[in-house]
Each structure stands twice: as C-alpha cells, then as structure tokens.
Specification:
Blueprint: H1 6-19, H2 27-41, H3 45-75, H4 79-99, E1 103-104, E2 111-112, H5 116-123, H6 132-149, H7 160-183, H8 189-206, H9 210-224
Antiparallel strand pairs: 1-2
Length: about 230
C-alpha cells in the first residue's frame, strides 16, 4: 500500500489545532499543516515532492472552488428562494417547449413562446448544447411530473443535473459583486452592509466564527481574485 494514510491526515488536523494561536482552525490552516507535516515526516524525496505538488495544485484549486461557491452563496440573500424561482421558471419553459405549448404570463395573462435564451443560459452551465437540449428538457419534464404523480415533493434539488446548472447560474451571476465587496479596502455603506451580511451568513450557514470568516475572505482576496 502506498500513499498518505487517513491517520496521517488526522495527525495534520491535530497539529493544526495544536499550532493555532486562536480558538479555531480553517481549511487554510489545515492545508498549511499538511504541507508542514509532509515536509517533516516523509523521507522519500520523490514522494514528498509529488505530495507537495498535489497539495499546491489539486488541493488548492479544489478548495478555491469550494470557497468561491461559499462566498457567492453567502452573498446572495435568500439563496434557496432564488434558486427555487429559477427552477420554477425553467420547468415552466421546458414543459412548454416539450409539449409545443405557450407560456401564459402570470400578471398580464399574455401567451408567449418559451424563453429559449433563458433555458440555454441554464443548460450551458453543465455543457448542454446543440441537439442535446431537446432531450434534456424532455427528461427533466418527464422526471418532475413522474415525481408529482407519485405525490413526491418537487424542488430545485430534485434532479441533480438541473440542480447543478441552477446553482452554477445563480453563483456566476453574483461572483463579480462578491469579489468587489470582498476585495474593497474602503467600502461604502452599502458595500459594508453586504460584507457584514455575507460574514453573518457564513457564520450561520457554514459554521464559521467571525474571525475565521474574516481569515478565509482575506485569503480569497489574496488568492481567488488576485488578478481581478
């Protein structure tokens, strides 16, 4: 058996806790602890360098992806409600497209063609393009209505590919705003309000403390959006 064991990783987490000068650790401090332990504990030079390469590229990039999503979600007020609204709109349009029907505006009662541009914007988030669009829309519609017939609850998380597409669409729409607020050295009142709400959501939803949230947001400013 080769590689780094689960026990080794647990020792790294323990070392991160021991070395911490505060009452918390973050993914950042755990990654740094793993690097330190790899340097100190692994004797085989080639294996050590390979592990450090993986930590510096694969692990780091994966964490930055997770962090960017967390920050973007925290920036969105009422994330779940907005994701559900996107889902409802997509399902209405996909059903109309599949059944070759029109959509009735809820306010004006005007009948309209399905919003092709909107559906494509959602689908492109997961690489659904060209001729595969029709099949995807039919699959989504059939799956959702089969669940409804069985009396099961239907929401934006019901169909994993569509859930992924909706989350990507929603997150990408706020990343620039989150980046601006996070990086800003001198925030105006509105930006400070957004920043404070973002920190509070990270505490409420993801288990951060105020200090650990500040730490990862600073890390995001220095690493995630360094060239933005």
């Amino acid at each position: 058996m080769k590689g780094i064991s689960t026990r080794f990783i647990m020792k790294c987490v323990d070392a991160a806790l021991t070395d911490s000068e505060s009452n918390y650790i973050t993914p950042i401090s755990v990654i740094e602890s793993i690097k330190k332990q790899v340097n100190e504990q692994l004797i085989d030079e080639d294996f050590r360098e390979r592990c450090l390469e993986i930590i510096g590229s694969v692990v780091r990039e994966e964490y930055l992806k997770i962090l960017e999503n967390e920050i973007a979600k925290a920036f969105v007020t009422a994330y779940e409600e907005q994701a559900q609204a996107l889902f409802d709109t997509y399902l209405d349009n996909a059903e109309a497209h599949t059944t070759r029907a029109k959509i009735k505006d809820h306010i004006t009662k005007e009948e309209m063609e399905p919003d092709e541009q909107y559906m494509r914007a959602i689908e492109e988030q997961i690489g659904i393009t060209g001729s595969s669009r029709d099949g995807f829309r039919s699959d989504v519609t059939a799956y959702m209505f089969a669940k409804m017939r069985r009396g099961e609850k239907v929401n934006y998380t019901s169909y994993e590919p569509l859930k992924e597409a909706i989350e990507s669409y929603l997150i990408s729409s706020v990343k620039d705003m989150a980046r601006i607020v996070t990086k800003s050295k001198t925030r105006d009142d509105e930006q400070q309000k957004k920043y404070s709400e973002m920190v509070q959501t990270m505490m409420d939803e993801y288990g951060y403390s105020a200090d650990s949230a500040e730490e990862v947001l600073t890390y995001a400013s220095n690493n995630l959006w360094r060239d933005s």
